[in-house]
Amino acid sequence: MENPFAEITARLDALAVDLRTLKARSIEKPERTRRVGLPEAAKYCGLAQRTMYKKTHFREVHHAKVGGRLYFDLDLLDAWIESGRRPMVSEIAEERMAGNK
Question: In total, how many domains does the chain have?
Fold first, then answer.
């Protein structure tokens, strides 16, 4: 006769795996909206709405205009913000050291 505790342990292990899977599903971040309007984009970038509108007027930032409304892709806003990134002192020093080798 098979050990009943082994069967109970196996079933408990299976339930634990199922429970972890369910928890992982509920913890996952919801997908963000891909496109946002001017107020949300300005808030996302930390700029005033007027500044954001000027940047669209001078075509400094990617945007779409549909029916007189401006829309911004969050991924493109991230890329735009990242393009203005300046290197840190340690990165400059590493580049200089690499050039001396």
Answer: 1
Mean pLDDT by 10 residues, the chain (101 residues): 79 86 69 84 94 94 93 92 86 82 58
93 occurs within a structural domain: no
C-alpha–C-alpha distance, residues 38 and 68, integer Å: 11
Evaluate whether residue 48 is within a structural domain: yes
The boundaries of the domain holding residue 64 are: 35-83
Burial (CB count <10 Å: 0-12, 13-18, 19+), residue 53 = middle
Determine phi and psi for 72, rounding to 5 degrees: -130, 140
